[in-house]
Amino acid sequence: MHEQLTAAVTSGHDHRLVLLATSLCVFGAIAATRVLQFALSSTGSRRHIWTAAAALVGGVAIWATFLIATFAFNPGVAVSYAILPALMSLAAAIVMTGLAFAVFTRREAWAPILAGALLGYGFATADFLSLSSLQIAGHFAWDATALVMPLVYAFGFSVLAFLAIRGLPNDRGLLSGSVALVAGALTLHFTGTDALSVVADPAAHFVPSPVPNAIFAAAAAVVACFVFAIVLVCVVCDQYMAAGRAEAERRLHYMTYHDPLTGLPNRAFLNDALRARLEEAERVGGQVALLAVNLDRFKQINDIFGHQAGDNLLRSVASTIGGELRAGEILARVGGDEFLVVQSGVAQPEGAEHLARRLLDSLARDIDVEGTTLSTAASIGIALYPRDGETVTSLHPNADAALSRAKEELRGSYRFFEPEMDLQLRARRQLQMDMRDALKRDEFCLYYQPQAETLTGVISGFEALVRWEHPKRGLISPSDFVPEAEENGFIVELGEFVLRTACKEAASWAKPLAISVNLSPVQFQHGDLVETVRQVLRETGLDPERLELEITESVLIDDISRALDILKQLKGLGVLVAMDDFGTGYSSLAYLQAFPFDRIKIDRSFIAALHENKHSEAIIRAIVGLGRGLDVPVTAEGVETQAQQAFLAELDCAEIQGYLIGKPQPIGLLAPHLGGDEKKATKQVA
User: Which CATH code fits 427-685?
Assistant: First the structure.
């Protein structure tokens, strides 16, 4: 093959054009292989886009190589060139390369073989069409026998190229695959020309080319280089943007799972870690201890020395507790001056007791905070798995109950959970018993909190919030009974009541204001949510575009595919879907990519810390910017001051919601916003 190729190149060819064709082939092969590798490392639509880009680069490289090599061919008679076959060669090269690359991106073992066969066929087709563009005073004759080996080279090297790209690491795959592609293209063309002979015919009609060969070849080279450059620049830009997105998501993940003040894991992190420890303990028959650590007199320290001193104290306490922990023990700050410690892999209750004593001893010391000596102490409550609870949601309340007993009896001490401490749990059980009867007795009602345009303050809609008017306990906040309703499944029935009541009320308003209703994850897991919404809209006559259903990330966590399917069906009804409490979950960005939400609602915790925590300000800016980039309006929850409103208006945040605009109220107090008048509102309230 080497002698045949050398002879073909050195005889009957313009060496300058041969060098140009070879250079383009090398650069094109490297560029196409690099873009193809980039496509393989991408997912979803980005993989398809970069596969197409690689096909464009590879196809143009094949076309330019064969066309310029054809220009370099000197058959010994006058030659001109036809445009149509040259353009057909370009189309064939791109199409066949695209098919080959598309097959190659599949994961099956046969993909490189079939892709190599398709690319080899593309080589042969593009080269044949390029040679067909030659026009002479006579005609060409082909030796079919002599064409066999060039075709074998083309198919063989193409298969080797794909095997190398698939089987070797990045740089080695790039080099080996590029070499094989270059070898396949060049051996096909230059050994293939040996099968071509010229039969002169002086009587044949011959039309000279209007453009000199060198100019035609240079134009093809410029086009190819331009395509290579554009695609490679796009690859570099995309990689840079991908790196930026990865870094932003890493930072968001860290902020989501860590406390910004102390750098410790937060509640979300601890819940995941504790759940994993409980599952491991269940498998091996082990025990787990959850220790709730709370500083004594922290509020007084904050009031006397200021919040800065309090923050510094919390950092020192976090460092002190962390220094007492051993391998495998987890520390988290879950709010205020409350810390949680998870201990596993040791005998209980002895292990938790020894740890509690070490922590109390280390914290019962004077701590120097920026020149101020502060006396600290702590109390600890302990709950054990499986004795005191078998889930995260049962262990944490029991540890808190034990902590409360320790503070009541003797500050600076620790207590294990005991069943008689469980007044709170008994109250919960009573609450659950009362709950189902409450719906039958019409004790549940809706309060409505206004939402307004940030710039103008004009009311744009309301969020419906459920309240419980208990005959003995008075008005009960949803934070007290909604978790219980979710735990026992009653939330499905209660949620339908809220949805139907809110839609019926909104349908009666003179103004077509929006109405927002929260959905629980339990509603997605039980019952026919889509059919319920469809039926409520039909019964109430509410325009679906006025109904906005709010979900949190927890809706999507358990079964994302099923949840997304339900959300798509809800969108099909014409209702809007909002992502509530955005920024508090790790996968929020991924869910925005997976589903076209109609609104993003910033969690109130970021707004509350807006002027105290630079991280919160940065997160708010990022979320509003993200919404602007996705063309999704953003609503900020928990807005209580004009300074917060001004900051959000400066960011062009679409809407705000919070006490600054209005507290949740019965609908009778909101009649002026609904198209009624003041007299009517007064009459309703009376």
Answer: 3.20.20.450
